[in-house]
Design brief:
By secondary structure, the protein is an alpha+beta fold. The protein has seven helices and nine strands, in the order H-E-H-H-H-H-E-H-E-H-E-E-E-E-E-E. Helix 1 (about 5-20) packs across helix 5 (about 160-175).
């Protein structure tokens, strides 16, 4: 029994290396539910630092089109904050800036016109039409045009398991865990990843990891923040990374990177894949 503390420290020290050595299991797609409001802290973040809420912008010099995206997101964030405070979903707002997330893979199909069931149906062919059809050569068959609203293939990170583990461990060690009141003097404050904070809580870890992964070359469309409930009933935030083996979890409460369906949490809400400003419930019937 006396050797257990030393053994525990040894396991924690070698946990990142052991996690890399174990092959990653393939995770099934996460079932997504109805739209929901973005967290108030996230909306505040998008107003202060809209670059954290727009995919495809890595910082540095910002061109005119990127500046327009950031302005759109900042305007959306002001509306989303009030929507969250009054219990409305972001889907009830005017459409969030689509230019901010062109890779959104769950956008709805365009509405189809409803036919008038009471309108008399004209005959399909008359004798003159049949004669003209017989004399007209058949048109050449062409390839069907691409469907405009067809879902885009999911965008995944090409970073290796070792690189994901390195960044996860680095951020977990670089930020000292602290609640928002102690760190910022207010509740539900989401610190920007570009600020490289030294103190923070779960969402600050997730945002810092998101920024570090983007700087390492991961596409922002492959990264999503999710809200979960822990075994103790506490609300918690983690970062989801879409890989070729499915989505995996980067968590400040654990040194291990695991498929989302093996994480010991109840999944509640998350950013829709490829759409940072769109939030959805997870699964069907998760919430009562």
């Amino acid at each position: 029994m006396r050797n257990w503390p030393a053994l525990s420290l040894l396991v924690l020290a070698f946990a990142p290396a052991l996690a890399v050595a174990a092959p990653m299991k393939v995770a099934p797609p996460m079932p997504l539910g109805a739209p929901t409001a973005a967290p108030v802290g996230f909306a505040d973040l998008c107003q202060r630092q809209p670059i954290e809420c727009v995919d495809g912008i890595r910082g540095g010099e910002i061109d005119a089109s990127q500046a327009a995206k950031l302005a759109e997101v900042r305007q959306w964030a002001g509306q989303a904050r009030w929507a969250a405070l009054f219990g409305r979903t972001t889907a009830e707002l005017s459409e969030a800036p689509a230019s901010a997330f062109p890779g959104y893979i769950n956008r709805p199909l365009a509405p189809r016109p409803v036919p008038n069931l009471f309108e008399p149906i004209a005959p399909a062919f008359t004798e003159e039409a049949e004669q003209a059809a017989a004399e007209t050569p058949a048109p050449a068959v062409e390839d069907a045009p691409a469907v405009e609203d067809a879902p885009a293939p999911p965008i995944v990170s090409a970073l290796s398991d070792r690189e994901l583990q390195r960044i996860n461990t680095q951020i977990n060690r670089s930020i000292r865990r602290s609640d928002d009141y102690a760190a910022y003097g207010r509740a539900d404050y989401w610190a920007a990843g570009v600020d490289h904070v030294k103190r923070g809580d779960c969402e600050d870890y997730a945002l810092a990891k998101r920024r570090a992964l983007i700087e390492a070359g991961a596409p922002g469309e492959a990264l999503s923040i999710a809200i979960v409930r822990t075994f103790h009933g506490e609300m918690h935030a983690v970062l989801l990374v879409a890989t070729s083996e499915g989505e995996v979890v980067l968590d400040n409460l654990s040194p291990w990177i695991v498929p989302w369906n093996e994480a010991p949490y109840q999944w509640l809400d998350r950013q829709a894949p490829g759409a940072p400003t769109k939030w959805v419930h997870v699964g069907v019937g998760v919430r009562s």
